[in-house]
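Ticket opened by: R.M.
Priority: normal
Category: complex prediction / small molecule

The reporter submitted a protein together with flavin-adenine dinucleotide and asked that the result be attached to this ticket for the collaborator who will pick it up next week. Submitted input follows.
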Amino acid sequence: MLPHLINVTPEQEMLREALEGTIDRVSPVSKVQRLDNAKTFDADLHAALAELGIMGIGIPEEMDGSGGGVVEQAIVLEVLGRKATSMAVFMVVHYMITRIIKENGSDAQKVEYLVPLLKGQSKASFCLTEAGGGTDILASMKTKAVRDGDDWLISGNKMWISGASTSDIMVVLARTGEHRSRGLSMFLVPTRAEGVQATELNTMAINGYDTNALSLDNVRVPADAILGQLDNGFPQVVATLNGERINAAAVAVGIGRGAIEVTRDYAADRQAFGRPIGQFQAVQHQLAVAGIAIESAWSMVMEAARRDEAGEATDVLSSMAKWASARAAVDCTDTGMEIFAGAGFDMDLPIQRYYRDVRLYSFAPLNQNMSLNMIAERWLGFPRSF
Ligand SMILES: Cc1cc2nc3c(=O)[nH]c(=O)nc-3n(C[C@H](O)[C@H](O)[C@H](O)COP(=O)(O)OP(=O)(O)OC[C@H]3O[C@@H](n4cnc5c(N)ncnc54)[C@H](O)[C@@H]3O)c2cc1C
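Result attached by the on-call engineer:
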């Protein structure tokens, strides 16, 4: 493993080491790769993470969580990005949902939905994106909820929804009013409710976690299925986006570091012209440059996480961290593929998985152009460009 250059507390280091040990024991890289090739969720690792208390990080102990906050979540997600990328993506969704319920849920909703999530007894999906586009989401949002007596009937179609085939519960954004941004509400919808149909998509990456098209056909939910306030769903989601951006950036850093580590090991072993290819300066320099970028990105992620935890505004810093991490991670995996050359095509080796999986966090949850738009507007002071 590469030495870590950014300081964390002794407790945070213990968390990192405990998590690394658990993953190595339960799901070593060969198993992660086998499950990824078989497009299978790693149920053993999920159970082991629950046992270790990873599901409850970010939620106080008095609410049945494990304590800790955004920094601890980032540390966990970097490790998972490095060792088990699909599970890292699962955990980004999990941490977003648990934060949304913690901040907006009623006491009854916390007991019914949050506690089982924190214990690893249930799984949740977040359903925002629609086929019309994920970036201009307010224009493309067509899913509607209409009143029927005391109940709501939800109809519409969602796209690219992680985990919808395997989750127990979904947080669904639907239109409940006319106003563009103040006319959306969040609903807690059981995935087994009548009228819910998830269809798994044949995707090229994050293969250990299902990605789905979701259809909702007059799905009946009671009045108390609303999460937070009526018509206030979009601001409630936006309030969690900086945290999600930081978490996605942490996974990207993990993928980038993982790619550097496996490539370093390969270059130390692979022979050409009578010596390991890692002895050629050109190979060393490519990895050193990739390493500088990923460590710079990680220092920004950690600073954004610390500020977010302290309650400070992090919209600019988290956008910078997200952009820098995604860019650096894509470069790390590209460098890895160059150095592995033909062996990069071997589906039993992890470098091709890093190379494919890293693409997700270039455009999600906030794509690279929108990160730059935000930095230009809120840091450089330019007028909004879109
Ligand atoms: C594997 C996977 C898992 C996902 N999981 C979930 C999930 O669990 N829940 C969920 O709700 N969604 C999920 N998504 C959807 C994801 O959040 C969207 O794909 C993402 O928001 C981008 O939306 P889009 O793909 O529709 O791209 P589009 O919105 O069509 O954007 C296309 C391109 O246009 C550019 N662009 C758009 N507007 C501008 C602008 N103003 N300035 C400059 N450039 C612009 C973008 O940069 C991008 O390059 C997932 C997607 C994938 C692939």
